[in-house]
Amino acid sequence: MKAFVDTSAILAVMDQDDQNHGLASEVWEHLVDDDAILFCTNYVILETVSLIQHRFGMHLVEAFVTRVQPLLHVEWVNDWLHQAAISALLAANRRRLSLVDCTSFVAMRRLGIDTAFAFDQHFVEQGFTMARPS
Question: Which is nearest to 12 in space by CA: 57, 62, 48, 58?
């Protein structure tokens, strides 16, 4: 199984006070135990590190970088992917839809991934399936 990992899921796993922490931890364990191939973009890594650093501090940045990031196949955003995401963002014309999300959607389609480990409903709106425990 292939799944795309979003910042919303990583934060839910790492933050015990997050409303989705229990489900996120269960899904994460399921994905890792089933040897799922986990993807994200370098934009997701950037967003995740920035939010973890701001909300929790450098000790959790280190935990993310040493324990979680090595399990992720990182799709590096090139000029084509960036421009396709910018086009998608402008076409959507929605204030609360981020460039990082649009980049994720384009990358997922390009990689043939239809499952997202996310707690962001934009993935469902885009036609992706949310990863949940079986």
Answer: 48
Range 2-76+113-130 classified under CATH 3.10.105.10: no
- CA–CA distance, 38 with 19 (Å, rounded to integer): 23
Phi-psi map region of 117: left, alpha, beta (phi>0 left; psi -120 to 50 alpha): beta
Cβ-based neighbours of 55, under 8 Å, separated by 6 or more: 11, 15
Low-confidence ranges of the chain (pLDDT < 70): none
Calculate the CA 60 to chain-centre distance.
Answer: 17
Residue 43 burial by Cβ neighbours in a 10 Å radius (0-12, 13-18, 19+): buried
Amino acid 37 reads I
Residues 103-129: pLDDT tens digits? 999 999 999 999 999 999 999 999 999
Give DSSP secondary structure letters for 17-66: TSTTHHHHHHHHHHHHHTT-EEEEEHHHHHHHHHHHHHHT-HHHHHHIII
